[in-house]
Hints:
Chain B: InterPro entries: POLR3C_WHD (IPR055207), RNA_pol_III_RPC82-rel_HTH (IPR013197), RNA_pol_III_Rpc82_C (IPR008806), RPC3 (IPR039748), WH-like_DNA-bd_sf (IPR036388). Chain B: Residues 343-419 form the DNA-directed RNA polymerase III subunit RPC3 winged-helix domain. Chain B: One of its GO terms (cellular component) is RNA polymerase III complex. Chain B: It is found in: Nucleus. The complex is a heterodimer of chains A (321) and B (555). With 321 residues, chain A is an alpha+beta fold. Chain A has helices spanning 16-28, 35-41, 47-60, 96-108, 115-122, 126-138, 165-168, 180-204, 208-214, 219-229, 238-251, 311-319, and strands at 33-34, 63-69, 75-81, 113-114, 142-146, 154-158, 173-174, 177-178, 217-218, 254-259, 270-275. Chain A has a three-stranded antiparallel sheet with strand order 1-3-2. A three-stranded antiparallel sheet of chain A has the order 4-6-5. In chain A, strands 9-11-10 form a three-stranded antiparallel sheet. In chain A, a hairpin with a 7-residue loop joins strand 5 and strand 6 (154-158). In chain A, helix 1 crosses helix 3, helix 4 (96-108) packs across helix 6 and helix 8 crosses helix 11 (238-251). The mean pLDDT of chain A is 78. In chain B, strand 2 (61-65) and strand 3 form a beta hairpin. Chain B is globular and about 100 Å long. Classes of the chains: A alpha+beta (321), B mainly alpha (555). At the A-B interface, strand 8, helix 8, helix 9 and helix 11 of A face helix 10, helix 13, helix 14, helix 15 and helix 18 of B.
Amino acid sequence: MATAAPNIKQEPVDDGDFEGRIVLLCQEHTEGINDAIIKAALPLSDSVQRVTALNNLLKTGRITVFQKKGTSDQPVLLYRLKDEATTAGPVKGADHQEKLVYQIISEAGNKGVWIREIRMRSNLGVPQLNKLVKNMESKKLIKAVKSVAAAKKKVYMLFDLEPDSTITGGAWYNDNKFDHEFADVLNQQCLRYLESKSASAKERHTDPLAQQNGALATADEVHRHITELGISTIKLTVNDIKDVLNTLIYDGKIKEITRVAAAGSTEEGQKLYRLLKPLIPTTGLMRVPCGVCPVIDQCQDEGAISPATCVYLKDWLNGIL
Amino acid sequence: MSKTDLALLILRDFHGEIVAKIGECIVLSGCATVRQVALSTGIPQAKVKRAVLILVQHGIAEFEQNKHGFIDYKVDVNKIVYRLQFPKIMRCAELLYGDPAKFMVEKLLFEGRATMKSLIKTETQRLNECLRAQGDSEVAPSLLEERFEKLVKTHFLKRCSVPIKDARGRAVSLEAPSEELVFVMPPKESGTERVKQEGEPPSKKLKVEGEVDHAAAADSATSEIYWEVNYKRFLQHFRDQVLVAAVASRLDNEKAGEVLRTILRHCEKTTNPNEYVSQPISYHEIQAQLPRDLGMAKQTLEQWLKILTDTMPEFVSKSADSGGGMYAVSIFQALQTLCTAHIESVVEERFGSKSLRIFRVILMKRQVEQTTIEKCVLMPAKEAKDLLYKMFREHFVHVTELAKTPDHAPSRTFYLFNVDLQKVARVVLDRSYKAMKNVVIKQRLVVSENKRLRDKENRKNVVIASLQKQHSDLLAEHGEGITDEMKEEWEREVDAIKSMITHHEYEQLEKASKFIHHLEASQQQLDSTIFLLESYLAMTYKPPTPKPARDPLGR
Lengths: 321, 555
């Protein structure tokens, strides 16, 4: 772990004393201590004892180890007391297992961690872990958040954290349900904005190039327009609008153009959006009922499903009268 | 498969039951001799011969001597399906070169082939009859001759294949005329230098001598050159029109289309129609060839070209800067884009616009995992999954499995969704053919259901017309002698005949004619889908390139 200790058999020494003194040392040197400092402070110890003591401290989570560049470019290992707030603070008085679970959850940050993952990492049994988690939840140390990725999957995170957008789904999720009406409305509004921009460009300019360029809009402009409309109760970011614009690109209704920044300027190329007119009218196949016919694969000249007896064809023809 | 079904249906419509049956037999067996066809269909050999003769005459069938010395006949299904394009081809000829061209092309389409002389003779007659009926002045055969030459020069007509004969004077196979000759008019004076072309298949001679060729045979011993419609050239023309329409629609401006049309018009002279990218044309040439009545300023043209190359690089690209900029049309890419657009349209209508979004995500990202799709499309993961799998079931999207371990366990495998455009195009094409077949069948059904009524109406019209003629003759003859009473009597007679068809029957007839009109319009629309997909798929097929001869010394 800490140093490559020579593997020599030795009498077991009571090293509780060493551990206590190392902790004291750490408290003195808040920036961390290295092996040399420990050696100087504990002249009686040998390397094996020091290593065992350090390992024990690491295992119980009282100290952490990290690397630092030394004087001669050799990385030096430093030991420091673990932050009281994250380790002992809220779980003071709690037992060892609860501390462990708390640590696992806090490590996961605002992405949260699944109960099965906690179980695997903590090596605790299901009933025991459930009890612990329930207990901590009631103490408001942690909270359970439902993930949008899977309806029944709960993830745990520290109580005061705001869940990550991958868990909540960002602006598009409301009560863990995808708010597709909201997304659709935004989709339409963005399109309408670009449509109006294109129409006004066509009115204002006569030469084709100016018409084309006048129809361009940046994501910022679209964002401003949507904010001014006030259709959203929550605050939308430019990135949210970019998501919506992307769906419009996927719909084939708008086009994205990257304008290259002028030479020498530090700005990145800007992304511009413009309305895209359809290349073709609806294709011929879809103008007859056969295009959308659910049983076209079973349709034969003779048989139960045939063009002569087809109800779709009949209704379609009667529809034109 | 649907294409073959449709082809046989068309064949039946055009040439009747027996020819269709024989056509079917040949199509299904790939190639067959007359004897084999006779055996498997049970039709006497003489009739089979006549049927095959019709097929050869129309360029539908080809023949070749097999290694046993028999003549194998093959049927080209495409040539049959082209018949759906006849109205379009005739209209195109009319628009380009006027009525005389339309008449000649029509004759060639429906008769398969003809010599120039007989064609001009019969068509001048027919055209003049029409003109007389309309009260216009007649035209001279020289006008038709001139139009014919134009059609040949622009490659819309071509020489027919020439039969090759064996030692015993039997035609054993067809040989396409050499490239220098295929679009060349024969010298004006008839004489010895005319290309001698006596050989028609033995069975064919009968018909040719009997009907078409008697005039030619009478005036000179030398047979004439037979001409046929060059479908490929017409198809190329239609293809260019589709490209122009697409550009005009996308840029929402007809002028943009005209710019492309000018480029394409130049390209059709310089570029082989199968080429992926056309020969470049310089800016100055475009400017010079742009129709004057468009009134496009120099600057505007420049701007349109810039817009075309910037926003539609899959259609027009700038290949060099010389000559004010060289522009080329990427025909294959443009077709691919259009094909994608048609398929997208199918997806949108069949599965909904949400599915189209998913479909396009896959198209744009090429290989994509399900989770990525769900993230991109801004809809509930469950819905996205549902729509995606629906498309998968109908073969519109495909899956590539990428196993991390050799056991292909699903949990350790990436499933990447992708779209194989060609496969989907084939699926859609087959459906389109099926739809076309269904529409044709339905139309025929409507016609036959109302046959009795239509006949009745025709009879009524004939009777009324003859009565009215009779009356007007009487009126002219006796003049003042006709009293008003007699006139009233006549009117009552006409009314009595008119009432032969009841109000209900009249409504029924109206309805039927509307149906037929609608079904015909649908056929044209379906044809546009089929045409584009076929053009695209034809270009994706690359004949295997012959391996370059290896240098024996390995240099």
